[in-house]
Amino acid sequence: MQHTCTCIAIAIIILILIYLAETNGKKHGCVEAINDLRKSIHEDLTNMKKEIRSELSKRSKQGKNAKKVTAKDVRKMRAGIIEHINAKNISGELPRIAGFVRLAFHDCVGGCDGCIDLDNEENNGLGEYIEELEDVYARFSRKLSRADFWQLAGITALVVSGTDCRSCMHPDVQFMAGRKDCAASPEYAGEMRKFPNNGGHADIDDVLGFFETTFGLPRSRPELAVALLGAHSLGRTHLNDSGFQGSWDSTQSKIDALYYQDLLNLKWTQQESKNNEGDVKFQWSGSFAGRSTNTMMLNADMCLRKVINPVDKNGHSACTLNNCRDQPETIKYVELFAVNITAWEQHFKEAYTKMTTTGYEKSQLYVPV
Ligand code: HEM
Ligand SMILES: [Ca+2]
């Protein structure tokens, strides 16, 4: 209302000024001044319109989110996501499973808010999954926030990964809604969010410290971080995204304990990985009985088994698998989860739920009924 009155008042002033210019102000300088004034008023009006539009869109979004999503809606969305996951099969693998779980993780760094900063190299590769999910989200965007939808996609991907898989973990994470998107969703315009030291050159302090400060997983319970990192049982690394290459285990679409079993049982040697820009990073390459298994571990994974620091600026450790000490804080959990899927499942569920509710009080989230 206030905006409308201001607009009318400004319009009247313009008309008076034009009238004065045309009747009395014949002098060139005066016409010029009036034209300048007219231009600046036009700009002000355009800005004002923009403000009004953005305010209205904010209000309608708040209205949308105020309506609760139902269990029936969620079932429909899950079906849409599952169809989408199954639609992309590359050599028998379903890469969207890993892509959606990684997206769910990255969105919760700094609070799960439906926003990913694609200028942050740590998020390389996520753009394609965001775009792919937009097609499905477009059908449901009136029902829930993008932040909720991405978490539903992650949970659904975990379910698909465990379907018809007896050796898989089935964490059955409860979906909760109520997350709010940041203003520029799905883009992010704030300060750069922090990931563990250079995404992979991490040691145990980086890894456990990161999970404690970012997701509130207490340092005194390292089993939660060990269980959560078992998500690397899914998917793979990409040379042109992170600078690493290969998958952690041979079952990229299955969330099974091979990740922990390989970490313990394979022979791991450090190998240089060089991307197109010539950046060098070290990773651990697996072999068994003298043969390469085409699998890899990041320092962030290997440090759960061995004390690998100090590492140099490229992530090369001073010790080898044989002469690095066992990691006292975490190796027992790697050993436990390698053989006890129920123990992994319980800890994973607890840690994953904490991660995916980062930034929210219990009272802000609800289980759709
Ligand atoms: C210390 C913490 C972590 C580090 C340093 C780390 C690092 C990485 C790196 C470097 C990649 C490869 C990206 C690429 O080249 O495409 C990756 C992929 C992946 N990460 Fe992590 N990660 C961490 C924690 C997690 C967590 C907590 C989850 C989920 C709960 C997760 C799930 C995944 C998945 C599923 C992929 C495979 C993505 C694909 O196949 O496209 N990561 N991670
Ligand atoms: Ca696997």
From TrEMBL:
The keyword Iron applies. Keywords: Heme, Iron, Metal-binding, Oxidoreductase, Peroxidase. One of its GO terms (molecular function) is peroxidase activity. The keyword Oxidoreductase applies. PROSITE patterns: PEROXIDASE_4. Belongs to the peroxidase family. This is Uncharacterized protein.
